[in-house]
Write a structure and sequence with these properties.
heterodimer; A: alpha/beta; Rossmann fold; seven-stranded mixed β-sheet; B: alpha/beta; Rna Polymerase Sigma Factor, Chain: A; 2 domains; eight-stranded mixed β-sheet; two-stranded antiparallel sheet; globular
């Protein structure tokens, strides 16, 4: 199975043999890859019933619960790595979820689409809500509840005492972007953060 | 219906089988050190064991279940109690899985229990039967597995007390259980759970025909007490909404004016449940097996998860949102304990209006989950 480029990048950030909790794991492809190729163990968390069944079919342990309200299910320091991949923008309580992640895990990996991308800003200036590969939904049918720029997001990390250990800025292709690395908030379509409390 | 033309999805006609798994010379040694032998076990199997002997799924039944989980006994109109799950094309597809179901130790449907004859005295054990634990029930299942020439289960699967056995089996002998499926179960009864069982037991033991447990040799039966026990337990198996939907406040058709008989339809239903139960269940088994549940606390022992941490079992834990007998919190506790032992655990809370009884029903998302999990188990074992 070939992983999406952004998931390949995430997988590369996770040490071999880690215990991984993937919040919003979808059909479990990242964990299936980590279990098969990096001797990782762990579980996904998902609330969409079809995705839960797909994860089970891939052999990925998955716990069906609501990220916004039910993360206290997991014990303190019970995972090495907690992943929140392209999910923070769909949460009702992102701040609390970040705090829970810091409680549950040691290393946190958070990936987000960047609303502040220059192309998005131009589209807004023309009077239209941004749509792109990273923000593919129309305003009325998007699962995204919140739109953040990378600068705003980093303020949130700081406010919950999360230290940015690494930031990888991605081009609209999903691959790391050299221009984005220099001017993340303007040229990053998305970013992957490695954080620690 | 005959053996040769089973209806689609049915395993067809089946027969209860018997095995003597322990003898007086080689008795079962119980968790409390007492010895029991001989132990006879009633069981059924469906489907075929494959050449690698790795497609066996052990169905563990609940408090009042029996070995007849699927198909039809000769001449019977109703199939086994889990027929909606077991059969060709069903989640437990008997074209691919070899399914075993055995009546549990202490039961009354063929396996040795407190109303069986004690060979030492020639009379029924009665209250002289030893106290049991879930671990003891599992030891007898293990003996049956050896008898069938199987060393490792693809899955141990059960609901309620059946889920408790699946949990215990996996924790104690992870080398024998590749996958554990624990549905609507508990790893530690609450005071409320124990309280309900206490009332049921009191109803049985204060029935004048209980006779200190000697009712079998006196050729009588504590019918009133056992029926009351069943009626009360049955209320806890259903949600309030399920009872409302089934009966509401419908009057019983024969009811004319308020009295103390069966005025409401729900009363008639409970009465019927109690009466039917008398025909198939034994009061002493009810006492012993309900006590087994009260004392079940597998995570309390030190090093209770040491073995399974060493050799993980893949777990599927499920609860039902309207179950107030063993609600979701009970399942969550199991999941948390297993996670602390670094087990791969899948957990779902299934939405179903039917309360605790949901685990016996064909709830689509529940069966879809079992199907996905068991299919995957089969893929992994053949890799």
């Amino acid at each position: 199975m070939t992983l999406r480029p952004d998931l390949t990048l995430l997988a590369g950030l996770i040490p071999d043999g880690s215990r991984v909790l993937d919040l919003g794991c979808g059909s479990g492809v990242l964990l299936a890859h980590l279990i098969a190729n990096k001797t990782c163990r762990g579980a996904g968390v998902e609330i969409d019933p079809d995705a839960v069944l797909a994860a089970i079919s891939l052999g990925v342990p998955v716990v069906e619960l609501d990220l916004d309200t039910e993360l206290d299910h997991f014990a303190e320091d019970s995972y090495d790595v907690v992943v929140l991949s392209r999910t923070i923008q769909t949460l009702k309580r992102p701040r609390e979820v970040l705090q829970q992640m810091a409680r549950i895990g040691d290393q946190l990996i958070v990936s987000v689409p960047n609303f502040g991308l220059l192309r998005n800003r131009l589209r807004l200036m023309r009077g239209r809500m941004p749509m792109s590969r990273d923000l593919p939904h129309r305003w009325y049918d998007t699962p995204n509840l919140r739109f953040t720029t990378l600068v705003d997001l980093e303020d949130l990390f700081a406010s919950v005492d999360l230290r940015i250990e690494q930031r990888i800025v991605l081009a609209p292709t999903g691959l790391p972007s050299p221009t984005g690395q220099a001017w993340p908030n303007l040229f990053g379509a998305a970013a992957v953060y490695v954080l620690r409390a | 219906m005959g053996v040769n033309v089973p209806e689609p999805g049915s395993v067809g006609q089946v027969e209860l089988q018997m095995a003597c798994l322990f003898t007086e010379a080689e008795p079962l040694v119980l968790a409390n050190g007492e010895k029991l032998g001989p132990v006879e076990v009633a069981f059924e199997t469906y489907g075929n064991l494959n050449d690698r002997r790795d497609n066996a799924v052990f169905i563990l039944h609940a408090l009042t279940g029996d070995a007849h989980a699927a198909g039809y006994h000769a001449g019977a109109a109703r199939p086994g109690w889990w027929d909606n799950l077991i059969g060709p094309g069903k989640p437990l597809d008997t074209d691919r899985f070899f399914v075993i179901c055995a009546n549990l130790l202490g039961g009354c449907q063929g396996t040795t229990g407190p109303s069986s004859i004690n060979p030492a005295t020639g009379s029924p054990f009665g209250l002289g039967f030893p106290q049991l634990t879930v671990a003891d029930l599992v030891e007898v299942h293990r003996a049956l597995l050896r008898h069938l020439g199987i060393s490792r289960l693809l899955a141990a699967l059960g609901g309620s007390l059946g889920g408790m056995q699946a949990l215990q089996w996996g924790l104690s002998y992870p080398e024998e259980v590749a996958n554990g499926v624990v549905v609507a179960a508990s790893s530690r009864l609450t005071a409320q759970n124990i309280a309900f069982s206490a009332v049921a037991r009191r109803a049985i033991m204060t029935d004048p025909n209980f006779l200190g447990g000697d009712y079998v040799s006196q050729e009588t039966n504590p019918d009133v007490g056992l029926a009351i026990a069943r009626m009360m337990a049955h209320i806890t198996y259903l949600s309030e909404d399920a009872l409302t939907e089934k009966f509401g406040r419908e009057p019983h058709p024969d009811s004319r004016e308020p009295g103390f008989g069966i005025d409401f339809a729900v009363e008639s239903y409970l009465d019927h449940q109690g009466q039917v139960f008398l025909g198939r269940f034994d009061a002493l088994s009810y006492l012993y097996l309900s006590r087994v549940m009260d004392y079940f606390d597998p995570f309390s022992a030190s090093a209770s998860t040491a073995k399974v941490t060493e050799q993980p079992v893949k777990w599927l834990v499920m609860s039902f949102d309207t179950d107030w007998r063993f609600g979701t919190e009970h399942s969550r506790r199991i999941v948390r304990r297993l996670e602390l032992a670094e087990q791969p655990v899948t957990f779902r809370e299934i939405q179903s209006p039917w309360g605790h009884d949901s685990f016996l029903l064909e709830v689509p998302s529940y069966h879809a989950t079992l199907r996905a999990f068991l299919d995957r188990a089969l893929v992994e074992v053949s890799q």
